[in-house]
Amino acid sequence: MLEVLELRKRYGEKEALRGVSLTVRPGEIFGFVGANGAGKTTTMRILMGVLRADSGELRWNGRPLSFEDRRKFGYMPEERGLYQKMKVAEQIEYFGRLHGMSKSAAASATAELMERLGLTERRNDAVEALSLGNQQRVQLAVALVHEPSVLILDEPFSGLDPLAVDALADALIERCRAGVPVIFSSHQLDLVERLCDSVGIISAGRMVASGPVDEVRVKEGGRRLKVVVRDAVPGWADGLPGELTVTDDGRQVLVTEQGDPQAILSSAVRAGTVEHFGWEQPSLTEIFREAVA
Amino acid sequence: MNNLWLVAQREITVHGRTKGFLVGLVVSAVLVAVVAFIPKFFSGPDSYTVGLVNSPGIQPAATSIAAAEEITLDFTDLPDERAARTAVEEGDVDVAVVDGSTILADGRVPGQLGAILQSAHRTAQAEERLREAGLDPARVTEAMNVPPLAEVSVNPADDNAALRVGAATLLVFVLFFLLMSSITTVAMGVVEEKGSRIVELLLTSIRPWQLLGGKILGLGLLGLINFVVVLAAGVAASAAAGTIDDLPPGIGGTIAGALGWFLLGYAFFATLAAGLGALVSRQEEVNSVLTPLTTLLLAAYLIAFSAVIDPGSTLARILSLVPPFSSMIMPVRMAGGQVPVWEVALGAFLMLLAVLVVLRVGAGIYQRAVLRTGARVRLGEVVRSASAGS
């Protein structure tokens, strides 16, 4: 289990992190979302030991996180970095060895990964000769080659074509099934919603919501009642709480978090033909907008 | 340690196969080989063909004199002066001696050959006149067989002064060239890793000192390979040119010493180059950030050059003890003449001390600056953050 407890970090006058905490369990994919500059990258860089926090604690399986623990982690930094003039296979293998693999183990893991990521034909090309998408695949291979015990990926999906997104998503799910905690940050909330078991929303250096996706939805978004009425008499919802909108084809939609559902329903029935009446859960995007606003 | 070696290995394989390295290796080897051939070029050819018309007695005398000068002469008998003129004009012979009285040449007679033939002519004429005067031919020959003057220098150290200066000049040039190119490569390598942010990835699996040390070690080994190839080319070319016998005695020790000084100088300059390189994020900034260091190196080069001409000057003596100048000046002084052992030992000790200090300072700067991407990091900030203990 990977735990981040009360991280604080200040750059000069600016407080980048003001007490960030999060927990990722084995076999869990944690989606890290937040606006630009909210503190995602800073948190991940501190986790990887690239930056030092002013205060706070990092724990891995209950013990303080050490350099040797991190050597087994897989990391994809926000700013991608590869040796442009080095060959693809050579490069992946080199990183495997830096993470402590033997020459033969690194070679076979490299061959296998390249096969899976569709890089085998480019094995002897210099990285600079590859398309950006393929460079991204090499970057992923570098993060995965040593079968990491934890995966920390900063915006891994940005700049990927849909096929590569699927390949990466599969790779993350596969690692996660192997019992590895996975953290990734993303602006693509639909992806986070699709892939993640847990989510953390960070805003201005503070976690505003964190936990299993469903719990966050309920807790942060609450439940909302949605009523759709056709041919309603005007002004029927004047006394009711919530927000009334009119669709292009004249249907009236009332969304509310308060009020007595039974009273609202009987008002709606009196006003016109009720087409829809039910509880709704907000999407992550809506929660995100609300949390960050 | 394992990681250090992994990094070094990468540097060697990746840089060792670049065109720049291979071309530089070949060019410098060829350059040194050419330089080694220059004395031979200036001393002229070492064999001549001489045509003889009715000039007995020249051949045996000239042959023995030429042998003493390490020159081979071939002789061709020609029927008359006309044939001799044609042979000289067409280059079949270099010169022709006619009737024991004239040398025919195409232009001027080559200096050395002229002296040999004139001397042989005098001997031959003297022998003949003595014989004509009725002396016993055997006694004449015996009397004419005079051993040459033995050549003895009153200053044994300066025995091969010119050659020593030549070797030292070459050494200074090679040292300067190799140090300059190695430190630029180190700094550019650091900036490549910093600029591409790959350093962020690297430093999550290895320590900064392993990355820095591996890079300096790997590129240093490449520089050493370059140095050895250049020296080997020089020695091989000298052997081929026949000048190897002329190399000053103890040249082996000079070369070994130069290698040692090269390593010390390299460790000093390369570590500082890595530290300075870590301050910037773009290749275009490498030259400007290295300027103080290259200026220092250039100064050491110029002073070393003056030491070639006058190895005993006070400036050369003092600076051959002061790091980092000593790394270039001391090997030159050692090549150019006798240096007291205590001076060499003191110079080496001070240089080693300087290297240790620089390793600590340079690695510290590197460690603090290499992850701070973006605008150029000011040296002052790094030093301040070091003293603040962060």
From TrEMBL, chain A:
Bilayer topology term: Peripheral membrane protein
Any Gene Ontology biological process: response to antibiotic
Record flagged with keyword Zinc: no
A GO CC annotation given for this chain: plasma membrane
Keyword Nucleotide-binding: yes
Transmembrane domains' residue ranges: none
InterPro entries: AAA+_ATPase (IPR003593), ABC_transporter-like_ATP-bd (IPR003439), ABC_transporter-like_CS (IPR017871), ABC_transporter_ATP-binding (IPR050763), DrrA1/2-like_C (IPR025302), P-loop_NTPase (IPR027417)
Name this protein carries in UniProt: ABC-2 type transport system ATP-binding protein
TrEMBL record, chain B:
A Pfam family hit: ABC2_membrane_3
Keyword Repeat in record: no
InterPro entries membership: ABC-2_transporter_component (IPR051449), ABC2_TM (IPR013525)
Signal sequence annotation: none
Boundaries of every ABC-2 type transporter transmembrane domain copy: 19-359
Main localization, broad class: membrane
Protein localization: Cell membrane
Transmembrane segments: 21-42, 165-191, 212-239, 259-281, 293-319, 339-359
Record key words, sorted: Cell membrane, Membrane, Transmembrane, Transmembrane helix
A GO molecular function held by the record: ABC-type transporter activity
One GO CC term, this protein: plasma membrane
Membrane topology per record: Multi-pass membrane protein
Protein name: ABC-2 type transport system permease protein
Source organism per UniProt: Thermostaphylospora chromogena
